[in-house]
Amino acid sequence: MQYQLKINGETRTVDAEPGTPLLWVLRDGLQMTGTKFGCGVAYCGACTVHVDGSPTRSCQTFIEDLGDSEITTIEGAQNKVAEAVQAAWREKDVVQCGWCQSGQIMSAIGLLSENPKPTDDEIKEYMNGNACRCVTYVRINEAVKLASEKLEA
Fold it and tell me: Which UniProt keyword terms apply here (predicted)?
């Protein structure tokens, strides 16, 4: 079947079977490989994208459920919050293996879009659904706090 999706501000037409996860539409259908496959059961957060501004696990979001939703991937994350998060990630040298980082960044953008001045506990709670095999959680926390400061400046 053909579906029209709004991805990163563009309407894209894709061919996919009903029940196809958005993750595979992005990666295989549109060659947008910034969104990663981790666990396939919405546990690790590597596949996080934004659907209508909310962090969403693309491995368990099915193409037929998207309708007119606005989808933002790591490739399209370009607003003020996204720029602050990406700069903080570089400054704090968060990335180790990198596999989870697009999902971590998309979740951090979601957090700071909702709550520009989170506490340490709020950061931990919000980011809890994103697993990091390299255990860079301390640097992730520091980067979220730095991004918050950048937004305040």
Answer: 2Fe-2S, Iron, Iron-sulfur, Metal-binding, Oxidoreductase, Plasmid
So what CATH class is 80-152? mainly alpha
Name the percent of the chain lying above pLDDT 70: 100
Q: Give domain limits for the chain.
A: 2-75, 80-152
SS3 18: coil
Mean pLDDT of the residues in the chain: 97
Q: How many CA atoms within 13 Å lie on the side-chain side of 68?
A: 0
Please state, in angstroms and as integers, the Cα–Cα distance from residue 48 to each residue in 6, 11, 31, 149, 153, following that order. Answer: 16, 20, 16, 24, 28
Fold (CATH) for 2-75: Ubiquitin-like (UB roll) (3.10.20)
